[in-house]
Predict the structure.
Amino acid sequence: MLIHSLRMKLRGELEAAPEERRFGSGWLSGIAALATAIASLILVVCLRFPLLFTMPELAALRDHVLFRPGLHLLLLLAYGLALLNLVLRRNKTLGFCALGVTMLAGLLGGSRAQALPGETGGIFFGLDFFLVNVVFTGFLFVPLEHLFPRRQGQPLFRNEWREDLFYYLVSSMLVQVLTFLSLAPSHLIVEHTQWTAFRAAVGSQPWPLQLIEIMFLTDLVQYWLHRAFHRVPALWRFHAVHHSAQSMDWLAGARMHFIEIICLRGVTAIPMFTLGYDASALQAYILIVYFYSSFIHANLGWSFDRIGPYLVTPRFHHWHHGIDKEAIDVNFAIHFPLLDRLFGTYHQPKGQWPSGYGIAGHPVPHGYWKQFLYPFRRGEGATGD
């Protein structure tokens, strides 16, 4: 009961009414304190269990000479912001929660935390990858959505934010498993093909040309797979989870069923990793698509009229998520609207946005686990969104 009561109080503070979030009320310092405290705790856990909760690719960051001093400053900042919240705000929930998390991080060793002896490697969970994901995309898109919103007044902690953040957490934590399963088809093709000369020719092309080719080929493949996810009832049950989001922002793109992630990444990875493209071009594309997924879902009101005919924009993709009848089964491309023009699924009325988002009737239940099981329920065979 105590934990449930604390959760409700914390949620109430995070989702406070606009008049309770005004500058000087202590709300902003409380949010910053809690976020900083949680980030500090995650980093301390990564220091204590580096083989279990960190990606090998991010080890250089953890071992950097400035990592521990930076973590120490982060803990001090969390402590200071929590005290500021306690001074300014009548409701002390955020401040006390931030202090509690900061103290826990300190008890685990703080910036001096050392790895526990006897830890073994092998399977890992990308807790550090989750933090990097949220920090980089959040710092980029949260200010932009606040300054240039499509939907005025949509708060940072809008309806369903907890579900979408949990999707972010799960996909980041399971990055090793998802990567292994997603790349398995490509590895199988490479092992059983002898395209040495062809791959050498592809990899010797100018770098910008390789990047454009990767973007086009992956978009072409995902266009038809994406379209199949809308038209084949068995596939739609999985994709409906993604379309169940009733608000659009930088977090909404993370809402995707585990099975769909494997299918989508597995198929789109085939042209990327089997044709011989240079590793630097592949890395550049992965970085682009990483940010682009958040960008096209973001709550940004910019029209992007000049680039809209050539590249997918938020307004273009928002129509794909629209709840209006005219938004059903349109705009499947992720990079190039040309594909929708070629195959008759382009829809972007000038200057207009969809009236809302989601699926008519909102059949998909709330909550990660209910949504995970939703595709396996009987009688959920409708297609389209």
About this structure: The chain has a mean pLDDT of 94. The chain has two domains: 2-124, 175-376. The radius of gyration is 22 Å. Residues 2-124 form one domain.
